[in-house]
Each structure stands twice: as C-alpha cells, then as structure tokens.
Amino acid sequence: MGCWGESLPIPHHPFTPLQPMIIDLQKFVSIERPHWRELESILDRLSNDSSFKPGLEQLKHFHYLYERTSADLAKITTFASEPETRRYLESLVARAYGEIHETRAKPHRVAPLHWFFNTFPQTFRRHVRSFWLALAITIVGSIFGGAVIVFDSDAKSVIMPFSHLQGDPRERVAREEQAAEDRLRGRKGTFSSFLMTHNTKVSILTLGLGMTWGVGTMIMLFYNGVILGAVAADYLLAGQPKFLAGWLLPHGSFEIPAILIAGQAGLVLGGALVGWSGRTSVKTRLRQISPDLVTLIFGVGIMLVWAGFVEAFLSQYHEPIIPYWAKISFGAVELCLLALFLSKSGRQPTEEAELQTRNQNFA
Amino acid sequence: MIRQGKTSTLLVRTPEGIVFSLILAGPVTRFLAWAVDMACIGALSSAVGTLLGFLGLLSPDLARGIIVLAYFVIQIGYGIILEWFWRGQTLGKRLLRLRVMDAQGLRLQFSQIVIRNLLRFVDMLPAFYLLGGIASLASRRAQRLGDFAANTIVVRNPKIQEPDLEQLLAGKFNSLREHPHLAARLHQRVSPGEARVALQGLIRRDELDAQARVELFGEIAAQFRSLVEFPPETIEGITDEQYVRNVVDILFRPQRSERQENLQTVPR
C-alpha cells in the first residue's frame, strides 16, 4: 500500500486473494437514497409528533429501514470511505438507534395535577430514607448552632449572615410590636419574589452539590441547621419563644421542609454516585434516579413559591396586627397538612404492600 | 455498547454490530455557544422587563416582583425549554452546530435536560464556569458536572451534505477509459483509503494554496501511476490534478465506462 493510503485489515485467503473494493458510489446512493429518506421522515415524525403511535407493521418497516441503513453504513465505511455520505448515514443510524433501543417510557402529555398529587409524594416516599438523613444532619447542625450561641454569644456575628439577626432579640420584638406603619409597604411583592428566587437557587445548589458524592449537600444542610439553631437559641435565651414561633412557623413550615427535600434530592444524587448497593454502573444508577431528582426539585420550587408569599405577606407582621396564636396555629396547620400530603397523597396498594414487606424484613 | 476513541469522537457500537461516531464538542465551542445564549437571555430579559414595566403604572411593587420572577424563570427556563423543543439545541448551540445528546445514543429525556441545566449552578462555581470547565477538560467525553449527572454529551452537529460527484466529475473527457482493462486493474489495485484521499483532495482542492495543491496532486498521481501504468500517449499533456480526477472518475463511477464506450461508437 502507498505511504499515504490507509490499509484495511481484510482477511486473506491463500487461493482467493481478496482486494478491498470500491463501490460504485453514485449507483449505490441512487438505489439506497429512497430508503434513507423514508427513514429520515419517520424519525422526524417520531421526534416532532409525541402523539404518533406507529402500528406493528409500521414498526416492522421502521426496523427494516434501520437495519438496511445500518448495513449501508457498514458497506460505505468498508468499501467506499466517503465521509460525507458516511456522516449522513451515521446521523440517521444514531437517531434510529436512539428510538429503537430506548426502553424508558416516552414522555406522556403534561398532567400537572396528577404529577402534584401522585408522582411528587410517591417519589418523596420512595427516597424517604434520604429525607430522614437530611433531617438528621440539619438537627445536628441546629444543636451545634444553638450550643455555640448558648456557650459563646459573641459567635453570633460569625454564624449569622443577616445583619438584622445580629441585634438583641428583645429590642427587635419591641420595635416590631410597636411599629406604627407597615415597613414592607409598597415592596411586599418584590420581597416575596426575592425570597422565592433566592431560596430556589439555594435549593438547586443543595441538590447540585450532590455531585460531590453528597458531601456538599451535607455541608449545606448542616450550615442551614447551624443558622436555624443559632437563631432559635438566641430568641429563646432572650425569652421570646412566642415571637420566634409566630415569626418562623408560617413560612418555615414549608421553607424548611423544602430545603430538606432539596437535600434529600442531593443525597439521592450523591448515593447514586457512590453506589452503596447493587452492581449497576454509575451511568445506570444516574439514569434511574434522574426523573426522581426532577420531580423532587420541581416540588421544592412549588413549596418555595408558597413559602415566599407567606413570608412576605404574613410572617413579617406581628402582634398587635396579627395575634401570635393565629400565626402559630396557621403554621402548625400548614405543617400537619404538608406531612399528611407527603405521607398519604397518591398512595397505591402496591406501595403499601412494598412498605409492609420492607418493615417485616426490617423486623 | 459505547467505547471511547482516542480523539474527541465517541464511538457507539449498536447490538447489530454497527459502529457510528459522534464528534464531541470542545470547551471553546461550547463556551462560545454559552456566550450567545447569555446574550439571548440578556436581550429576552430586557424585552420582558420593558413590557412588564407598563404594569408599574398599576402597581410598581407588583411590576418589580413579576420582573424579578421573570428574570429568574428566563435564566433557568431558557436552556430547558429550548433544548426540549429543539431536541438538544439552544440558539447558541444551533448557531455553532452543537447538540446535546444522551451519552449512550438513546433518546434525550426531559429529566436529563432539566438536570444538566439546573446543575449549571454548580458548574458555574466559583465563577465563570470554572468548575464545569475543569470537569469538561478532565472528562474523556468533555462532560461538565451537569452532563455527567444527566448522562448527556454535547456533540458537533455539522451540516450533512451528500457529495456532488456529478458536478465534480461529469462532463469531462476521461482518456483513461480508453483502456478498460487498465481501468479494471486500477479499480482492483487501489485501496479504499487511497481512493478516499484522492476524492477528498478533489473535493477540497479550492481550499489549498496553489503550491500545496500542485504538490498534493503530484504525490497522489505518482502513487496511482505506480499501481497501474497507462500508455504515455493516453496521459500525455494532462496535469496531475486531471489525472487524479480521471482516476477518481473510474473508481467511483465505473458504470460510465460502458456509457462512454457506447458514446464512442456513435458516429458524429
């Protein structure tokens, strides 16, 4: 072979020496082109029209076209080495391969109510162990934050990132209870939007940090717990438990679980990367959990929208405008409803049986 | 089954034994596509801000709140919505001919698109996509963290055109066809690799400098001459490039020899 040519490993027979062939490209293309075009049109229809459900005969024909085009690709790669036609065929084969070998369910029409009342709580329950772990990490962080404030009140300026939390709680309570005018007047909407977007960003980051094998997520959860525990300890030490509950419960009953669910998603992601159990590859594990991650983070987004409204329009108003008992009751009812929703909504008989089996095995 | 080639090409072997390649996009091209997308997001946000600004006449607070939300939704939703509706492409990716694909060549799922876009928040850390850029450079598949989590890759999606051999080769007298037995021998002795080099040389001849063009076709012609020797009177007066074109004509369009023979028998 020539110094600039590329030789192909053709099997050699002693009696019938084989030489690589060059096919008549134009003839080949003109004969095969109609089949390629037909395959291309079916692929276009499959990707553009989600309601298109081919029948058995159509599927057989589609498979035939895929195999024929694959054979053409093999032929042109071996005998003609013509890059443009080869690339065209590769793109067709790649697309058809994706359609034929895809075993995951094709996305169905959008059903938001079904998703909210069934898919979201079911997904939450499927990964509930990650949620308990997220809660445990947050509680540990809270205990740490609370202990720091109890034993070293000077640490407040280091732990608390918000300037309005660094003053004396008694002074703040007195100031807000005696406020003659609405300090959020004319900016409740902006404040609410800011809270929604900020908390959603934090939640997405908490999920995304699952890519550090879950370590980043754990740090985020722990840090959130530290702030929460420090604030709670600060107000309790100042003798303001009623104000604290009335201030935090209305929005916190949704906001804190939302961050915990984001942490749950991050831990699920980290768990898939670590792969504690099973012999499946990391790619397979990630593929299995990706719809669940999306479900959880969309659920978190909805919860944070609600929490943003409540924080801007209710949580920042205290006695005498809104009695503490009303705010605390509102928050408690929210928390109960949320717990009921996440534990019961969309529960299937199969899910019950699965849980019972798991409990029996555990016992 | 998927295996990784040495270059930036991902080879996918189907269960039928067919191998097809996907050309992975490099970080620079992806960064340019991202810059275009950022410009689009900026323009879109500005347009929405101007439109919603009129709400300020009713309630400035409501207008500001909606604008804050709209910016956020555009920032996150831009990539998700466009990649879903354009099957893995945003405006920037379209311009630079890139496409997001499933890493195993399967159909791209909505959840994959959402995850790769949400994880931009991590890839962007600490600034200017530093983490994502490092991950992309370190990854054999040029995947940032979002791509890794979503099991996606970004591939180059060049415009695919069938070669116009008719325009390249037709309408020119081919003196080599006067010797069908030598043409057949040439067809037998030239390897597909050699034929490919010659064909690509002709297709891209206008991209070459004059000197490089002469040298390239001289080298190719010398190789073909070493394989089959045509009578001197047949190749007399034709340049190396014409000689190569005639050889390619014989190699890729052998049926013309019969046609040409028929034409030659017709008295003019």
Number of strands of chain A: 0
Order of helices and strands of chain A: HHHHHHHHHHHHH
Helix percent band of chain B? 55-70%
Low-confidence stretches of chain A: 1-19
Oligomer: heterodimer
- In round numbers, the mean pLDDT of chain A is 84
Q: Any low-confidence stretches of chain B, pLDDT <50, length ≥5? A: 1-7, 257-268
Largest interface pair: A-B, 74 and 73 residues
Shape verdict of chain A: elongated
The first-to-last residue Cα distance of chain B is: 60 Å
Radius of gyration of chain B: 28 Å
Could you say which structural class the secondary elements and strand pairing of chain A correspond to?
A: mainly alpha
Annotation, overall tally of beta strands of chain B: 5
Mean pLDDT of chain B: 83
Beta-strand residue percentage of chain B? 5-15%
N- to C-terminal distance of chain A: 73 Å
Question: What is Rg of chain A?
Answer: 30 Å
Note the beta-strand portion of chain A: under 5%
Strand and helix map with partners:
The complex is a heterodimer of chains A (363) and B (268).
Chain A: H1 25-48, H2 56-80, H3 83-101, H4 112-126, H5 128-151, H6 156-159, H7 169-177, H8 188-208, H9 215-237, H10 241-274, H11 282-315, H12 324-344, H13 349-362
Helix pairs in contact in A: 1-2, 1-3, 2-3, 4-11, 4-12, 5-9, 5-10, 8-9, 8-10, 8-11, 9-10, 10-11, 10-12
Chain B: E1 2-4, E2 9-13, E3 19-23, H1 27-53, H2 60-85, H3 91-95, E4 98-102, H4 110-118, H5 120-123, H6 130-138, H7 145-150, E5 152-156, H8 165-169, H9 180-189, H10 192-203, H11 210-227, H12 232-235, H13 240-252, H14 256-265
Antiparallel strand pairs in B: 1-2, 2-3, 4-5
Helix pairs in contact in B: 1-2, 2-4, 10-13, 11-13
What attributes characterize this protein structure?
heterodimer, A: 363 residues, mainly alpha, 2 domains, 13 helices, 74% helix, 0% strand, elongated, B: 268 residues, three-stranded antiparallel beta sheet, two-stranded antiparallel sheet, disordered N terminus
